[in-house]
Amino acid sequence: MTRLWSFTLITLLLAGHALSQEPGTKVPSVTMAPVSRARVAPGAAARVELDFRIGSEFHINSNKPKSELLIPTALKLSATNPLTVVELKYPAGEDTSFPFSPDEKLSVYSGDFTITAVVRAQAKASAGIYPVTGELRFQACDRSACYPPRSIPVKFEVTVAR
Amino acid sequence: MGMLAAGKYLNRVRNHTQSSMVGDVRGVAAPNFELATLDGKRVKLSDYRGKAVLLNFWATWCSPCKVEMPWFVEIQKKYGNDGLVILGVAMDDTDTPKIAQFASEMGVNYPVLLGTDKVSEEYGNVEFLPTSFYIDREGRIVGKGTGLLGRSEIEDNVRKALTAPVAQMNQVEAPATNSKRVKAKPAVQ
Fold first, then answer.
1. Which of B2, B102, B127 sits opposite A71 (nearest CB)?
2. Dist CA A158 CA A160 (whole Å)
3. Confidence band for A102, pLDDT divided at 50, 70 and 90
4. How far are the Cα atoms of A46, B76, B110, B165 from residue B79, in angstroms, in the given order?
5. What is the DSSP annotation of B158-184?
6. B115, HSE (Cβ side, Cα atoms, 13 Å)
7. Nearest Cβ partner for B63 among A101, A147, A149
8. Domains of chain B as residue ranges with CATH
9. What is the CB neighbour count within 10 angstroms for residue A152?
10. Per-domain residue ranges for chain A?
């Protein structure tokens, strides 16, 4: 519940900021919800769901856009010993056409999307809380313009416990 | 590839500077620049003094920009003999051959220049694409288009750039409070 409220508050603040600006000076927003209770046992792997929300006027390319010229959404994570990020699972993009090109479908994310990180702890890992940090890089467009690629920081903690 | 290509552009738009290119820029002298073409030549805006210029900022990763490009090709054909020059400024930073390949596939028939931090800043920090400036024969901006415009709106701006006489430019709708408006001063040296 707290997580939902935080998400909502941040989104409302960003939306208000965007609306207060002149057209053309708005900033595409992607926010990440806090991660709670990520937990893994030594020698095991755990899935950590990372929830993101895109500002309502925008869409971003999926991780697998339909053209190599388009900039994919990509998460880079760095885990500290004894954790390793062994896999990132991106959601499929939604094939969508836009007013600027009604005959072409782009693979995009809009609204909320979730990337799943699979985190493994070494077998001899000591119990404790370990940070995982990184960044989400994306390139947003609205219905008539595209904005330069941006990155937002990503950070969460994983508890290693038997 | 795309991420690398866009990295420097991100830094570019972060380096905001105050300039007369913010807000309504009609009547403002178009900042001169010197940029490389896809084949390594150097081009200055001032080389086109006496021509009307459609200066279009775009990038290969910008889907709306792709929509405009065929229109620009046709507009260049239609108005080239009247003195129109379209200059495409690619805001991709790397991989010039891929930009060239893209332009070739789009049938681009006008010069494509490689954008820089400096030219972006001088044009008011081009924060989103496509963005186009319409520049008259005297080097003054008569219109600006941000985001994808309709073809008719683009052509209206082109005709304005082609036909704006100096005397008329003195009367460009400038609010009295805007001291940065340029009055009949040669813009491009």
1. B2
2. 6
3. confident
4. 63, 5, 12, 17
5. HHHHHH--HHHHTT----TT-TT---S
6. 32
7. A101
8. 2-166 (3.40.30.10)
9. 13
10. 2-160
How many Cβ atoms from other residues are within 10 Å of residue B101's Cβ? 14
Using a CB-CB cut-off of 8 Å, the residues of chain B touching A98 are 63
Nearest to A24 among B1, B60, B128 (CB): B128
Average of pLDDT values for A139-144? 93
Q: Do B63 and A74 touch (CB under 8 A)?
A: no
Tokens 């036909």 sit at which residue? Answer: B163
Q: Is B153 on the interface with A (CB under 8 A)?
A: no
Residue given tokens 């409302």 in the structure block: A12
Distance (Å) of CA B185 to CA A125, B21, B143, B159, B173 = 72, 16, 17, 21, 16
The pLDDT value given to residue B127: 83
Give the chain A residue nearest B7 (alpha carbons). A149
Compare all CA atoms of chain A with the CA of B58 and give the residue at the minimum distance: A146
- Stretches in chain B below the pLDDT threshold 70: 1-19, 94, 166-189
The yes/no answer on whether domain A2-160 falls in CATH 2.60.40.1250 is yes
The answer to whether the predicted template modeling score (pTM) of the entire model surpasses 0.95 is no
The CA angle A83-A84-A88, to the nearest 5 degrees, is 130
pLDDT in tens, A30-73: 999 999 889 999 999 999 999 999 999 899 999 999 998 999 99
- 3-state SS class at B85: strand
